[in-house]
Design the sequence.
């Protein structure tokens, strides 16, 4: 086949089919991505020209207190943001999917559609909706907590340094729980009936069937969900910007890498934007995501046994 | 039969949990919608009750429609989303067809190259993207957004569509070749119509992040004439933060089109996810 292909005249139609996608993708995505990595090696001189400074920007970012404190703060916060998603969003999503896939469950389509709705709303809507609900001014949240007998526990969580980041992470969990749920639900449906029937013959049913038969089969899906969560979280920005502004208040306690990148690159209030330092932050984010994706691709995915039915 | 009773109990528990979670997912949205048509006093005194004839007051919507340029923002969002979607689907399907249909040197490499963008977010290239757009004079134009979103949507579109392009029957295409149809005709008249269901799925996946994006409108097109609905409502909400009627009405207006669109396409979306995961 390949021998024959080489003897044929040059097949221009392949080029025509591929060209638009490859050109746009290369020009708008790949070149800027590497352009950004490249920009991180330069700095702006006094006279406005660009000079090559090697790894100086990274030294500044990691070593200079004015930069590094904020950077490590944002990285730490981002990690906590991710941990909450992994500990709350994904288990809830999996549990909901497991319940949804109960055979002959009525209204399953309705529940599925309804629980997914927050995931299609924009961060602007979600951020503001929760800002209003948690606002002590409006009093919806305190009223609810009073009704549950927890009235004394209410606090303006979004405004407190202690709780703001966790609250935001939980809002994001509320929004996106539908995604792991859908992916798991799809994976659960794809488990063949024969496997489950065989388990039933051996007397494994109900919860123990879930833990012993289904969950091991779902590990590849859990891997995909984890890496999607990771990339999404380390690239998040909108929710923080909408609810807390570019300054990621109170006192930078909700600053994550996305909002830090925005401030560095674009500037805010008294600080001028710096494209080169912005590119440096973006490069570090790129490295973090690359490490995460590599761990997944080479460390996790290859070890998971894939079951073919 | 204890097992039948246990089943009943289990199914009741399942419904209880699912109903509880559905309420948690929908109630915040519902709360915004019902309060958006109430007067200011009712919003604060009795936020949880439905609007009645006494408390009904559309003042919020009036403010939004008078003060904000929402019709323009909506139009901008629509143009950007539809145009990006068109290019993602057309160029994505073309590339997917080439990768799935022809054997040529570098085929796998090209597929991997295009798949790179699924995992690496385009946002990380923002600094250089802005420089390119400034150099090309495209800042504050909808074109810049369409270009960025097309690039952003292509990797996943190519990846999903090439799976489906492979399933198009070879006999059909070979019969067409014997009849003398060109490769372009085969693509447009045979392959494209046959992968239409997959295209619909890709369309939904591509559309939602574009419509909801705040990052690129904020950086590439923050001008009044090019604001998208997401950016426009963000700024409006920031300015009118103390006018609760206006804020609630603006939120309702922003929620409405997405939810309607979702309810129309939800079956397609769910079928798409299910199919993708089975593969």
Sequence:
């Amino acid at each position: 086949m390949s021998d024959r292909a080489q003897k044929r005249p040059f097949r221009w139609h392949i080029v025509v089919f591929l060209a638009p996608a490859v050109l746009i993708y290369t020009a708008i995505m790949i070149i800027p991505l590497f352009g950004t990595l490249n920009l991180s090696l330069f700095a702006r001189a006094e006279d406005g020209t660009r000079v090559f400074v090697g790894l100086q920007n990274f030294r500044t970012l990691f070593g200079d207190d004015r930069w590094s404190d904020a950077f490590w703060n944002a990285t730490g916060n981002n990690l906590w943001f991710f941990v909450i998603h992994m500990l709350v969003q994904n288990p809830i999503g999996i549990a909901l999917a497991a319940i949804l896939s109960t055979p002959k469950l009525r209204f399953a389509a309705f529940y599925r559609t309804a629980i997914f709705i927050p995931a299609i709303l924009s961060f602007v809507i979600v951020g503001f909706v929760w800002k209003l609900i948690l606002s002590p001014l409006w009093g919806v949240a305190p009223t609810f907590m009073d009704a549950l007998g927890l009235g004394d526990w209410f606090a303006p969580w979004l405004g407190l340094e202690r709780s703001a980041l966790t609250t935001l992470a939980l809002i994001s969990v509320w929004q996106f729980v539908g995604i792991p749920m859908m992916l798991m639900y799809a994976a659960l449906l794809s488990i063949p009936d024969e496997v489950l029937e065989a388990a039933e013959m051996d007397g494994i049913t109900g919860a123990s069937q879930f833990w012993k038969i289904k969950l091991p089969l779902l590990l590849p899906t859990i891997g995909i969900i984890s890496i999607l969560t990771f990339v999404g979280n380390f690239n998040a920005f909108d929710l923080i910007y909408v609810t807390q502004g570019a300054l990621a208040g109170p006192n930078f306690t909700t600053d994550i890498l996305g909002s830090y990148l925005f401030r560095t690159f674009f500037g805010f209030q008294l600080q001028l934007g710096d494209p080169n330092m912005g590119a440096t932050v973006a490069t570090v984010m790129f490295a973090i995501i690359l490490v995460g994706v590599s761990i997944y691709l080479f460390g996790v995915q290859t070890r998971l046994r894939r079951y073919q039915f | 039969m204890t097992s039948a009773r246990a089943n009943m109990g289990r199914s009741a528990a399942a419904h209880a949990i699912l109903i509880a979670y559905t309420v948690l997912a929908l109630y915040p949205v519902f709360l915004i919608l019902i309060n958006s048509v109430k007067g200011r006093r009712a919003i604060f005194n009795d936020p949880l009750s439905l609007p009645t004839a006494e408390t009904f007051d559309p003042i919020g919507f009036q403010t939004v429609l008078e003060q904000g340029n929402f019709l323009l923002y909506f139009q901008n969002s629509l143009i950007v989303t539809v145009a990006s979607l068109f290019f993602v689907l057309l160029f994505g399907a073309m590339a997917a067809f080439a990768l799935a249909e022809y054997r040529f040197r570098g085929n796998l490499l090209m597929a991997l190259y295009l798949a790179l963008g699924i995992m690496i977010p385009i946002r990380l290239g923002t600094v250089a993207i802005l420089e390119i757009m400034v150099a090309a004079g495209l800042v504050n134009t909808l074109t810049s957004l369409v270009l960025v979103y097309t690039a952003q949507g292509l990797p996943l579109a190519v990846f999903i569509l090439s799976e489906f392009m492979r399933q198009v029957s070879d006999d059909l295409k070979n019969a067409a070749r014997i009849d003398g149809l060109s490769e372009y005709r085969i693509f447009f008249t045979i392959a494209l119509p046959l992968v239409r269901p997959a295209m619909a799925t890709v369309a939904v996946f591509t559309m939602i992040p574009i419509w909801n994006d705040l990052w690129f409108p904020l950086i590439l097109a923050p001008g009044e004439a090019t604001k998208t609905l997401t950016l426009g409502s963000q700024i409006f909400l920031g300015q009118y933060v103390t006018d609760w009627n206006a804020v609630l009405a603006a939120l309702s207006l922003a929620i409405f089109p997405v939810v309607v669109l979702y309810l129309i396409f939800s079956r397609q979306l769910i079928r798409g996810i299910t199919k993708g995961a089975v593969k």
User: Anything to note?
Assistant: Strands of chain A lie at 42-44, 50-52, 267-268, 271-272. The radius of gyration of chain A is 24 Å. The mean pLDDT of chain A is 87. The longest strand of chain A covers residues 42-44.
